[in-house]
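Why show two proteins at once? Because comparison is the fastest way to build intuition. When a single record is shown, students tend to memorize it. When two are placed side by side, the eye starts asking what differs. So, the first record is below.
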Amino acid sequence: MGAAENKKLIQAAFDAWAAGDGAAFFNILAEDVQWTVIGSGPVSRAYTSRQAFLDGAAKPLNAKLAGPIQPTVVDIIAEGDNVVLQWEGTATAKSGQPYNNSYCWVMRVADGKVREGTAYIDTALVADLWQS
């Protein structure tokens, strides 16, 4: 797959997520994805599989929220196997506080799967959510 196809893959997954399919993005992660969340918050670390990323980051984050994160794609840039996705995620914490985070994900896509990713997020906002 080339850059255009990789960009379409990511856009389609986020379109499906925005339409209510919360698993859409996770379904395009390779089983052995190498995913790193930058920072020093409760989900910041290197994950060595899709399941580890789900169990260590996605599920604990979703457990703190009253409903699913609503994603809005801001921009997608693709070159070769590399895709950079800038997006906004909004939700409400179970405590009632708003959760509005900005994300930048740098990914390597091969054979229709995300093989590597690095997530840049407001980890202080995530840490605050853990305290609520």
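Second record. Ask yourself what differs from the first in the token line.
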Amino acid sequence: MFADLIFNPVTLSVLVMVGLCLAKFNIILSVIIATLFAGLMSGMTLSTMPGPDGQNVLGIMQVFVRGFGSMNNIALAYVLLGALAYALQASGLAAKFANVLNKLFGKTSWLFLIVLAIVASFSQNLIPIHIAFVPILVPPLLAMMNKLQIDRRAAACSIAFGLKAPYILIPLGFGAIFHSIVATNITNNGLDVSEMNIWPYMIPLAIAMVIGLFIAIFISYRKPRHYDDKPLLVAAPVDPDDITGKFKPKHWGALLGALATFGMQIWADQTFPGSALWALSVVAALLLINMFAFGTLNPRREKLNECIKGGIGLMGFIAFVMLVAGGFAEVLRETGGIGTLVNAALYLAGDNMLMSLIAMQVIGLLITMGIGTSFGTIPLIAAVFVPFMMAMGFSPAAIIITIAAAGATGDAGMPQSDTALGPTAGLDADGQHDHIWDTCIPTFVHFNFPIKIVGIIAAMIVA
């Protein structure tokens, strides 16, 4: 059983991917190499081969490409939202908002970082556009951050906090999706929690996120860090008068359109449950049209093409990484290593409740690190964790906390996760922020460890 745990294709392929990324190898190539490693270790072939029963057995690359489908909606949404971010930059609205933040909070670095975390939180619940706000808001703030000598590792933690804590705690927007996934999968595996409110059991996990953010801002990265004032690598041309002048109809059009995303998201979620992904694409497209109608953008075709190209420049890399991550996740599922990993860890934990909780948290971390999404981890672990914990006599509250905590960690700090890619997209706009060492490692350490520790303690208390 110990060999099944250590030499598992999931465990080793995740370690390969992490090791390559730590060595500053290209993220996309790192994921592809880890995918091939996982498939070959499990006995898969590179290409489709005839099976013993005459049926074709898909090879690694066919399964890998098939996994792209699970991320198609996300990739399209990110490109369109990138175009929207570029358009909002061009309108000057983003710079206006950045100026307001600068005037109100631009004299105290720790206060600015807390406000940044709060603003980031809106992207999960109030106006659920996820990481798309980062390339809209953060690049105009870099000059002010340089002046204050804010360590961008702390800023990465602030943004990552806003991308995770709200959906963990608040059942609105992406939080409604996460809570629904937790409740549905626990219910489908033998414990009916469909009528229970999930959010009260998420409070300890949210507190753990706050602890991690506090440590990052006030302890780990409180010292000043120097950055040079450099031009942005991808920046929309902005008329200076649009930044410092009065609000014009085009600014109101952009603002009204941005606020309309909230209404559109709420309507889509109520009318078509689970529609958040395609709704993001629709909202972005409609908002672009709205900005042309209000004169926010010049309606000439070349301007529209410029927005789309700018969107690809801002978010295209993230979109493609998400596609590759979807392929990696599909191959990991196909290997059968996830089930073996879970069973081996729980077998080694035995009847000891504390050891079982620790094992489940480690398993959740490894799986999420492999497939790159908390939302996708929940169904995989619930199928085994729920019956196991019920047999051991854990309470429903302990089961909910454990499933949520095991699924909620791993994407913070993983190179292929949007929770890490998002902060880098804004903070590296001038080429002075390293994705692995300045985003992934700081966010991994400050959020994954506290959630695991608090999750285990809370589950033991209510067990």
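One difference worth noting in the second protein: Residues 301-335 form the longest helix (35 residues).
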